[in-house]
């Protein structure tokens, strides 16, 4: 059994470090490791063994969630290369993207039905796909500053998708 290591999430799952990731393989490796660390396996063990299993399970779950979500994976990859986006003092200076944000927000405010929601979702998902490709390219070129700006854009796009879901719930009374 691989022992969860706080040093690198990719190493924990024995996956190559990179943005492009086989999610099915990640899930398979996660299930295998989670089964090996399941609390039932340590029920008759010492308090120390149970505590260690719990800590390793927590680390495993965090690593899985980080790698499973593209934006979190991108942010994690940057952190492995010395770029910390958590303590952000730098703002996005891409005026074209800032204008696009305003246009999307205005369009979202005008949505009145399921068709409008679907159109907005399609637009935002396409933008997210483009940003994923941009991040993979910039990160691969070790252009970490531009890759970090791409993550900032991805965070906005992720928030827009959450707002679209909320609007859908309110319009369709879920």
From TrEMBL:
A GO CC annotation given for this chain: iron-sulfur cluster transfer complex
SUPFAM superfamilies xref list: Chaperone J-domain, HSC20 (HSCB), C-terminal oligomerisation domain
GO biological process, one term: protein complex oligomerization
Location of the J domain: 8-80
Keyword Chaperone among record annotations: yes
InterPro entries: DnaJ_domain, HscB, HscB_C_sf, HscB_oligo_C, J_dom_sf
SMART domains, per database record: DnaJ
MF annotations from Gene Ontology: ATPase activator activity; protein-folding chaperone binding
UniProt keyword list: Chaperone
Gene3D superfamilies (alphabetical): DnaJ domain (1.10.287.110), HscB, C-terminal domain (1.20.1280.20)
CDD domains from the UniProt entry: DnaJ
Quaternary context: Interacts with HscA and stimulates its ATPase activity. Interacts with IscU.
Function comment: Co-chaperone involved in the maturation of iron-sulfur cluster-containing proteins. Seems to help targeting proteins to be folded toward HscA.
HAMAP family linked to this entry: HscB
Family of the protein in this entry: Belongs to the HscB family.
NCBIfam families: hscB (TIGR00714)
Protein's name according to its UniProt entry: Co-chaperone protein HscB
């Amino acid at each position: 059994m691989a022992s969860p290591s706080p040093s690198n999430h990719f190493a924990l799952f024995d996956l190559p470090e990179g943005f492009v990731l086989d999610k099915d393989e990640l899930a398979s490796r996660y299930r295998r490791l989670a089964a090996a660390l399941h609390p039932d396996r340590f029920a008759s063990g010492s308090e120390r063994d149970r505590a260690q299993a719990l800590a390793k399970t927590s680390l495993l779950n965090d690593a899985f969630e980080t790698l499973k979500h593209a934006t979190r994976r991108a942010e994690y990859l940057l952190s492995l290369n010395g770029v910390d986006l958590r303590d952000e003092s730098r703002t996005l200076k891409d005026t074209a993207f800032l204008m696009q944000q305003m246009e999307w927000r205005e369009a979202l405010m005008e949505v009145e039905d399921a068709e409008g929601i679907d159109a907005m979702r399609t637009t935002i998902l396409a933008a997210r796909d483009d940003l994923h490709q941009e991040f993979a390219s910039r990160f691969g070129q070790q252009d970490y500053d531009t890759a970090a700006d791409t993550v900032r854009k991805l965070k906005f796009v992720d928030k827009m998708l959450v707002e679209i879901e909320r609007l859908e719930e309110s319009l369709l009374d879920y």
